[in-house]
Write a structure and sequence with these properties.
The protein has 480 residues and is an alpha+beta fold. It is 36% helix and 17% strand. The strands form two sheets. It has a ten-stranded antiparallel β-sheet with strand order 3-4-5-7-6-11-12-10-9-8. Strands 1-2-13 form a three-stranded mixed β-sheet. Helix 1 runs antiparallel to helix 3, helix 5 packs antiparallel against helix 6 and helix 12 packs across helix 13. The longest helix is centred in the last third of the chain and has 19 residues.
Length: 480
């Protein structure tokens, strides 16, 4: 079947294309491919199983390079509705869940979300004393180190390009290469705490309906009281989603600290199932200390102002906290203490989970005293951001290659990962399961490396005292 007919059929079957716009879309497609064919009757596909493969087939049919990512986006832009129409449909949905389902499915149909590539990712879980951790090997995502993240953040931008890849000006932008071309990219706008934001779906989809919520203006990440009010507003409108923020400092934050943004979406994470070691109720507010590799406190309240008050008060208290015996340095030239906040809404309760972070460095730990220990870099080098702090590892493609090499038993070993995985596979009757268990254990240890209060007698006592101080500050009205 002609791939052009199948592509038109896909656009109609997925409601990406309105039947009234068929001629218009066809002529746009012909211009994009530099072809001049009469309209081919669309082939009813009942939704294409492999859209990315179909696009490659269209490129080959048109005599183009099948791996031309820029042209692939321009092809899908011929069918993707303009932002105004998408916004109208999103705002007109009967509720938040209907709105997000519409936008998510459109993002899949337009190949904004790389569904076929995502199917190749590998997933497994690992049981620990903290509960079950998730591990994903993302075969499409390039690996970054703390050094490369800082280098990218300081890299100068071209005058004719938006300041960063998160900026709204990328919608429909046709660039010279895959790094700056976003022809079929679409967003929806919304107000959070009276400020303009927009939402898009991540092409990588690290978890169910992985969405990114971005400030309209290019401004740096900064956690303030407004942050907690924004999180509350979002989960009130979209209660099926969580929303969280990477810490606002290098090393412990994400890779795009230059532009205020949050990550949200559906599903649950391992931290949501964490055991509560201590629970205190005070004036309608619940404080919980979690059993988790990274020190975490959960606060529940039905009032968003109360949640925001406690959230910013906890942050300020933590920013002043110092414990040199545990190597927690609050400030040198700059502040080192910050938090990773995550918000959900359960019934009428706002549920805020806060993880304590610190990014100071030493001569022996240039990547961060509370960063992953170098002995575990063979599995994980990148910063532990929001998603992984919640218990879901995102590992690079090299891990899959190392697993395959270890399973094949190839020697000499090309890298430490293959060597370690080869050694691990003898630990049990199922070699692959043994390798997965080894990787899961290393990920757990990586999270523990990032813990400011370690899971030992001294660390537990310090965390107990910190938790008690936060509760007392709220009870006595001393919280800033």
């Amino acid at each position: 079947m002609n791939p052009l007919a199948r592509l038109m059929g896909h656009a109609l079957d997925t409601s990406l294309l309105d039947p009234r716009d068929v001629d218009y879309a066809w002529n746009r497609l012909m211009r994009t491919l530099n072809m001049n064919l009469a309209l081919i009757k669309p082939h009813k596909t009942m939704q294409e199983k492999s859209l990315e493969s179909l696009i490659k087939a269209v490129l080959l049919y048109a005599g183009k390079n099948e791996d031309d990512a820029v042209l692939a986006e321009e092809i899908m832009d011929c069918f993707t509705p303009p932002p105004s129409q998408i916004q109208q449909n999103f705002d007109g949905a009967k509720d938040g869940r209907t709105a997000t389902k519409y936008f998510y499915r459109l993002s899949q149909a337009a190949n904004i979300i790389k569904t076929e590539s995502l199917r190749r990712n590998r997933h497994f879980s690992h049981n620990t004393e903290y509960g079950t951790l998730d591990v994903t090997i993302n075969l499409a995502k390039p690996e970054k180190t703390p050094t490369s993240i800082m280098r990218d953040a300081n890299r100068s931008h071209r005058d004719d390009a938006p300041p960063c890849m998160l900026c709204k000006e990328h919608v429909g932008r046709q660039g010279e290469d895959a790094s700056n071309s976003r022809a079929n990219h679409r967003i929806v706008t919304m107000d959070l705490n009276g400020e303009p934001f927009f939402m898009q779906y991540s092409p990588y989809q690290y978890y169910q309906e992985h969405a990114i919520i971005i400030h309209h203006n290019h401004q740096p990440m900064h956690i303030t009281k407004k942050t907690f009010l924004r999180l509350c507003d979002f989960v009130s409108r979209f209660p099926d989603y969580f929303l969280g923020s990477n810490a606002d400092l290098p090393i412990v934050g994400g890779s795009m600290l230059s532009h205020e943004h949050y990550q949200g979406g559906g599903g649950t994470f391992p931290i949501d199932e964490a055991t509560v070691s201590k629970r205190v109720l005070c004036d309608g507010v619940t404080f919980e200390k979690l059993v988790w590799p990274m020190p975490s406190i959960r606060i529940k309240s039905s009032d968003k102002e109360t949640i925001a008050h406690i959230g910013i008060g906890l942050l300020k208290y933590w920013q002043r906290y110092e414990n040199k015996a545990l190597d927690i340095i609050a400030k040198r030239d700059v502040s080192h203490n910050t938090i990773t906040p995550i918000m959900r809404k359960t019934g009428n309760q706002f549920v805020l989970t806060v993880m304590l972070r610190n990014n100071h460095t030493t001569l022996s730990r240039e990547d961060g005293q509370f960063h992953i220990h170098p002995s575990r870099y063979y599995v994980k080098k990148e910063n532990i951001g929001l998603i992984e702090a919640m218990g879901r590892a995102i590992l690079p493609a090299r891990i899959a290659h190392a697993i395959d090499a270890a399973m094949e038993g190839k020697t000499p070993f090309k890298n430490e990962a293959t060597k370690r995985f080869f050694e691990a596979k003898s630990n049990g009757n199922n070699p692959l399961k043994a390798i997965h268990a080894h990787i899961g254990e290393v990920f757990k240890e990586a999270l523990e490396d990032c813990a400011v209060f370690k899971n030992d007698v001294i660390g537990k006592k310090a965390f107990d005292d910190f938790f008690a101080s936060i509760v007392q500050a709220y009870e006595t009205g001393a919280m800033a």
